[in-house]
Amino acid sequence: MEARLNFFASPIAGKALKHVMSAGKMLKESPLPAATQELVALRVSQINGCAVCIDMHTKEAAAAGETSVRLHLVAAWREATVFTEAERAALELAEEGTRVADAAGGVSDEVWANAAKHYDEEQLTALVLTISFMNMANRLNVISQQPAGDYEAGQFH
Q: How many CA atoms within 13 Å lie on the side-chain side of 86?
């Protein structure tokens, strides 16, 4: 598979993605736990079918010490016993925030309240921004058919 667009060779993409990558780096430094960030990024990418982001976030999480069991179970987190209540709340918010077109009311008050029980305002802000950021990144990669499999942990750091 060959990508439809080469973002690294495009002047306009270079200018725009410089800011996008800067925002992504800022989110990595947020008070939201790193493991939660990677789990959420992975789940959003699974929902959106973004192979390159699934590849990236699986490898980044594994390099940071995440277990293969937890990574394999992200897609079925509701039935898995390996996630904390806080992680489960974040994954549920990520799903509803990603599927806004499918869920007539967007993110439900119940899902929001559950996330707010586990995260303070700064962490919630980072969580919402991470979900939104991943949805944007997924769409860039899916539309342009970026190929997956060659990512190496730390490649963009």
A: 13
Which of 11, 16, 20, 33 minimizes the C-alpha distance to 134? 20
Which domains does the chain possess? 33-143 (1.20.1290.10)
pTM (two decimals): 0.92
In tens, the pLDDT along 85-109 reads 999 999 999 999 999 887 667 899 9
- Under DSSP, the state recorded for 99 is -
The count of other CB atoms within 10 Å of the CB of residue 147 is 12
Which residue from 85, 55, 81, 54 is spatially nearest to 70, judged by alpha carbons? 81
Contact 144, 13 (CB under 8 A): no
Q: Can you list the alpha helix ranges (DSSP code H) found in 99-151?
A: 109-118, 121-143
The per-residue DSSP string of 19-86 comes to HHHHHHHHHHTSSS-HHHHHHHHHHHHHHHT-HHHHHHHHHHHHHTT--HHHHHHGGGGGG-SSS-HH
**Contact criterion met (CB below 8 Å) for 138 and 53:** yes
